[in-house]
Amino acid sequence: MSNKKKDQLNEVEKSNDDKVMTTNNGVKVSEDENTLTVGERGPSLLEDFHFREKIMHFDHERIPERVVHARGFGAHGEFQVYEDLSKYTSADFLTHPEKTTPLFVRFSTVQGSKGSPDTVRDVRGFATKFYTDEGIFDLVGNDIPVFFIQDAIKFPDLIHAVKPEPHNEMPQGGTAHDTFWDFFAQNPESTHTAVWAMSDRGIPKDFRQVEGFGVHTFRLVNSEGQSYFVKFHWKPLQGLESLVWDEAQILHGKDVDFHRKDLYESIEKGDYPEWELGLQIIRPEQEFDFDFDILDPTKIWPEDDVPVQRVGKMTLNQNVTNVFDETEQAAFHPGHIVPGIDFSNDPLLQGRLFSYTDTQITRLGGPNFNQIPINRPVNEVHNNQREGMHQTSVNKGQVAYHKNALNNNDPHTTPKEEGGYEHYQEKVEGRKIQKRSESFKDYYSQAKLYLNSLTQPEFDHTVDGFSFEIGMCKSVMVKQNAVNQLNKVDRTLAERVAKNVGVEVPAENEEVQSDAKDSKLTMEKFDIPLAGHSVAVAVNGDISADTLKSYAKTFTEHKLNYAFVGQHPKDISEDYGITETFDTAHPTLFDSLIVLSDGSDILPPVEEFAELTYKHNKPLIVSQAAETNLADAKLNLTAPGVFVSDDPNTIVQAFDRARYWDR
Ligand code: HDE
Fold it and tell me: I want to staple 145 with a disulfide (CB 3.0 to 4.6 A). Which of 116, 213, 277, 341 is the partner?
């Protein structure tokens, strides 16, 4: 983390090391295990102030969880722009390549509550707080570039449909239920985002491998006052990978913390995840050059038409010290912007600008949430705002108003030329109306564009995603209505899902007639580096320490995470050994598997490890001695991505692809 934010947080960090226990009023505590009572077996006394304070504080430890995005995990990092972008913007952090800007990122799921599993099918939040020298810029985006609705007034309806149903509070963490699919069918603007969520994008493998999108159109404004429309992107340098649904479901039980653990451990190990900041820029005179409205948040700007310029890099390099104090109390807000950035008239964005401060007041208990350490800017804050719950500053002086003569008119305002924020002077006129623009009413073309751009396995997974989710609905009417919507996008999708969920294939083919594709939509466009992947080595019988060490050496050379998994833990050296057993580990927790055997009968869990790795299309290496033992297992040893080898280096070749869909 860059120093400014780190120094600021260090100042408030508190350690108990070598300290005596006190009450919150600083009185040293002599007894912390027995309350004050009358005699050894008598009643407790109210005057035990330490007991009263301890229990009072405990009773109030919880704050309301976020209405949406309750389940999340964050980390600190930094950002550096590659080149001076003053052509587009006056923002200080985008025009000074020599500067590193501290930042904080929180990833989240949308639907589930705070304790829900990480690997559910859902959109992921990707919120970034930049602590720039000119104040805080929050880029509060998602891992999917579009949103379910076009106007903020529909957000409570969407979320009420998405969340567990109110009469029985089920299901937790997912959208596979009647109210969500009823909303989908009755609100066709949700079609495009639903197609993304049902594809592999809805079940990312980890947080390190998600793209990030600002979703809305923003403006960049340069020092001459020229403005450009912009969409923000985060491009992961770790590649882009997803789970398969069966694997994701098993992981709900095997490791509810699968995503947060991956991020936490990568950072602890010094394997810092990185993303490049991407900009798509549309000049004002191009605003109406497209067959979609650039203010519509249910539309992408296809990257083949409007290329993404990669302008800087973010590195996440420090875990938080305390999850509640930092991650839980982080208050993001799309309205936190800095000079050089401004809003567009996207009606969803405009509504968000209103919502986020409201939610912080409920969640964080008052208007002073910006004073909480994680939310404090790194530059100084001075104004005439005073008092309120949880005020932590001690504001000096007689004067708290503007303008004043008693304090020399301080704090004083700053003109734009010297860094004062001035809103872009867009000319706007019109009647007051409540009406959706006609230009927002094409709900299906880009859903079709997305499906056209997928590879065949990706398309098949999307069919499976829809089939599972719609299939879980109880109402046949809802299922039929949902399939009728799919029929307006893609006939094959509608036919296959209808068959899988047991409803009628709509009589008429109403699909969008278009072969248009965007080459950047398939996940396979990303190179996937070997480093950072994981290998389980299933040890069947007695394998020499030297053999295990030679495998460990290869893994370390290639920065692979690994674990030897055996029937019993075993110490084979000082640093590593057989640390996992078939009870503690599971093939879904790893990206690949190597089976080593001494030739003895294959243990049932080893066979299960091999079968599940095979089923989930992951690289599988089987030693020569294990090959014959696995003859009866449910897998084909000559299938793509299965290697019979005793050479530890085969792992490099095996990761030629992260998943072998043609298996
Ligand atoms: Fe949010 N959203 N949202 N949202 N959102 C919240 O703010 C809201 C929307 C997003 O890690 C809440 O502090 C409205 C789009 C993320 O802390 C709340 C509308 C996008 C996070 C809220 C939207 C997002 C939130 C809940 C429609 C992607 C988590 C707690 C106008 C571009 C941030 C909180 C974190 C959180 C309201 C739509 C992303 C209730 C009214 C579109 C990543 O204020």
Answer: 213
Q: Is the CB of residue 335 below 6 angstroms from any atom belonging to ligand 1?
A: no
Interval between CA 366 and ligand 1 midpoint (Å): 19
| Closest to 67 in 3D by CA, of 362, 347, 348, 374 | 362
Structure confidence by residue, pLDDT tens digits, 38-73: 999 999 999 999 999 999 999 999 999 999 999 999
Angle 19-24-30 (CA atoms, 0-180°, nearest 5)? 55
Looking at residue 410, what DSSP letter applies?
P
Q: Give tens-digit pLDDT for 1-37.
A: 558 999 999 999 999 999 999 999 999 999 999 999 9
Q: Residue 227 pairs with which residues in a beta bridge?
A: 221
**Structure pTM?**
0.97
Nearest Cα neighbor of 661 from 456, 521, 440, 384 is 456
The answer to whether residue 317 is catalytic is: no
**Cα(68) to centroid of ligand 1, in Å?**
7
Burial classification of residue 425, based on how many CB atoms lie within 10 Å of its CB (0-12 exposed, 13-18 middle, 19 or more buried): exposed
Q: Is 599 helix (H, G, I), strand (E, B) or coil?
A: coil
Residues 92/134, Cβ–Cβ less than 8 Å = yes
Q: Is the CB of 359 under 6 A from ligand 1?
A: yes
Read off the tokens for 169.
Answer: 């509070």
Cβ(8) – ligand 1 distance below 6 Å: no
Is 142 known to be catalytic? yes
What is the H or E stretch that residue 236 is in?
A: strand 227-236
Q: In sequence order, which residues have a C-beta less than 8 Å from that of residue 390 and are 6 or more positions away?
A: 365, 366, 368, 371
Cβ(266)–Cβ(208) under 8 Å?
A: yes
Query: How is residue 488 written in tokens?
Result: 């307006």
Rounded to 10 degrees, the C-alpha dihedral 159/161/167/168 comes to: -80
Q: What would the two tokens of residue 396 be? A: 């000096």
